[in-house]
Design goal:
It is a single chain. By secondary structure, this protein is of the alpha/beta class. Helices cover 51% and strands 19% of the residues. The protein has helices at residues 12-22, 35-44, 62-69, 90-99, 111-208, 215-242, 256-266, 268-273, 290-306, 376-386; strands at 4-8, 28-32, 48-54, 80-84, 101-106, 252-255, 277-280, 285-288, 315-327, 334-343, 390-395, 401-408. The strands form three sheets. It has a five-stranded parallel β-sheet, sandwiched between helices. The longest helix is centred in the middle third of the chain and has 98 residues, at 111-208. It starts with a strand and ends in a 7-residue tail after the last strand.
Length: 415
Amino acid sequence: MPPKILLVDDREDNLMSIEAILGTEGYHFVKANSGRQALKILLSEFDFALILMDVKMPNLNGFETAELIYEREKLKHIPIIFITANNFGDENIFKGYRSGAVDYIYKPINSDLLRAKVNVFVDLYRKNHMLLMQEQTLKNINKSLENEIHERIASEEKIIDLNHKLLQNIERLESANKELDRFAFMASHDLQEPLRKIITFSDRLSSKYASKIDEEADMYINRIQKAAERMRVLIKDILALSKIVADKDSFVETNLNGLVSDVINEMELGIKEKEAKILVDKLPLLFINPGLIRSLFQNLISNSLKYSRKNVKPIIRISSEISYERTNVETNEKAKYCRIHVTDNGIGFDQKDSEQIFSIFKRLHFNNEFEGTGIGLAICKKITDQHNGFISARSKVDEGSTFIVSLPVNSAPLN
């Protein structure tokens, strides 16, 4: 908006004369015919750049009106130029300044002088207005910063509290996991003795009384033997899962090609039975726990053999690559990982199940389709966890699967 100027004079012709002189400058004029009317206007409007006021007016003269104006705090910033036809002398001029005047203009009015003086005060008003706006902006910014600091402090306090609770929960979980591992080990160990007796006595019953029992009884004995064998395998897998603990002394630099070759030799009968072909690319030397990684390859190869397609000879390929996969938060450096791919041409599975297959006892097929306990891939996950690594899978139904084992180069065990 254009700067506002309040014109105060009891004569209309004087008001029109001043407005005519300043009309080309783009100001907005508000006119008052007396000191009282000026005060009334200033009750609701106080955003004036300047007041041009006649000294000699009836009832309230210019000096008296100025004193009343400056009694209000909100109006003290408005400069007043007195317009007068009289030369009062020093004493009266001082009285005008004391009442609030910043300058005088004498009649007859010099147009150029009036415009020059008004321009100076309007320019000062604009600059003060800009400074006030900048001050308000800075206050808003400071207020915003204060709020942000308070929120950040509150957030940091919440984070500290949450971290403390998280550490407590981690301790409780670690303790619970250790207890569960001990329980699984002891329970599995204690279950083996009665299971051995079931297997032993069912075998004796089957061999000794084979000619004396009927077909139905023989079927029941066979079911007992199969159920006992499944239980034996399940106990063996649970024991294997509970025993997976890697200490620092068990980590050594290992030739993965030699380790995988040993695993393939141990599984020779199963591989020949399936007429499978296993292709192994050159694998790197890694700092690992050989016993655990041996078990990992046994489970993955066994998995590929088990879930092969009917009338399709299994082809399993084991390859590797070095990649940078995760960034260290403290050093901002990417960690170097060896990614080992175990790819087959088996029955595959739906990719949406790629995460849950690593859960214990999770199976995507019924027992009568494929034998197994649902623990093998859980064992693989626990082994990679102990190596500060991770495992994932990519698959498509009837197009095979790829299991990706990522192990850090120069790995250290999980504490």
